[in-house]
Amino acid sequence: MNAPHNTNTASDRITESLIKALNLQREDYLNEGHVSVDVRIDRLRRGMTSIHKFQDKLVEALNTDFSCRPRELSMMTDVSGSIGPFKSAIKQVRGWMRPEKRKTMFPLGLLGGRSRIEYQPLGVVGVISPWNFPVNLTFGPLADILAAGNRCMIKPSEFTPAVSEVMAELVKDAWEEKEVAIFTGGPDVGAAFSSLPFDHLLFTGATSIARHIMAAAAKNLVPVTLELGGKSPVLISRSADIKTSISRIMLGKTMNAGQICLAPDYLMVPEEKLDEVIREIKISVAGMYPTMLNNPEYTSVINDRHFQRLHNNLTDAADKGGDVISLAPEGEDFSKQHGTRKIAPTVVKNATDDMLILQEEIFGPLLAIKTYKDFGETIRYVNSQPRPLALYYFGADGAEERDVLDRTTSGGVCLNDVIMHIMQEDLPFGGVGPAGMGAYHGYDGFKTFSHAKAIYKQAKIDVAGLAGMRPPYSSKTEKTIKSQTKL
User: Fold this and answer.
1) Which of the following is catalytic: 227, 280, 401, 425?
2) Where does residue 246 rank: exposed (0-12), middle (13-18), buried (19+ CB within 10 A)?
3) Which pLDDT tens digit goes with each residue over 11-59?
């Protein structure tokens, strides 16, 4: 007699494991009922303590996954960048949880009616985090999620397996599975994860992947927050201090080798200042990185696919007549590397719209430069493109600055610097249009991962009777209608 055929595939087992965890968290959430401020702070403190405890392992794992990533960068962006949101939430969550009074319509307020909003946990929130800042972009939003009283399930990127392994150890050290659970693995795990009936789903990554995530979430009507990317422009005014501006721009462009969703993608500079801009770019990069190939402070590209993609951008630009300027230190041959995938910062001068470098998000140390005659050209150009995650303006012209803010739409804006706005925990971080939807950070994150429950408490007086709202209708009814429709 033949044994029954086993139809339980690997995909089925992954889904079963995920659903089991989801059910465990949801049941525990429902059993707990009100999530007190003390419980929330305890969960936050445990997470913050474990991040601090595992900091050295996280830094080592980041260096392993990237093949070269400076300790200082990892500490500033991923470790302290994760501890900060926990500190902020611990300090402020008590205030965030207070009911919010709202105005009650006349005359109900005079009669004793009261309106308020209470922020209630959503339940179980899913987080799909990326590879470029895998620690910060996992635990940063987790602080907001826990502050809001939720449970959380996490799917980190398969491109940073060493980091994912340490994060899994950290999560188990800080929380029980019924509070926070993490699931590592490749696209099969990601596909099953994004299809779960979460109460909310946060995805950080590429716009192309976000379309699939949103489609999967829609099957269960799961609300989503999407943190994506796009091409973030830098508008350099004639009133800008070129030396200072370029120093700040190139710090942001070369940080993590440009593998930042907020990294500057292209510059728009006055045509007569182009040579000065190029000169200052060379000076700035040489000052930060006198060597690169054997310099542990210059980050490597994450994997071979992205390495080849960036080279394809440069080949395409050169083939289409672009002036490709490598900023590699003299004597360093980037074609001969051992164990790393470094690409020297590279400028494409006078880039044209038919080039890949101006069509796709760069996510690497390449920078396109366009020129303009009249500053109004910059605003028109930005508005002709998909709305960016960030927009950067450098200048001292107040009217021009106001024009940029009023006439362009982007996820966020930084004036006279780049990227720094994401470090402000009390500013919402999020995109618009193809750059994403929704936002988090601080109080805005608390609200994103909460349900704003509207509550009205009626007065003891018979309001419906006084206003003639109860049939049979009368002159009181007509009087109420007349007062409410009066212009």
Assistant:
1) 227
2) buried
3) 888 999 999 999 999 999 999 999 999 999 999 999 999 999 999 999 9
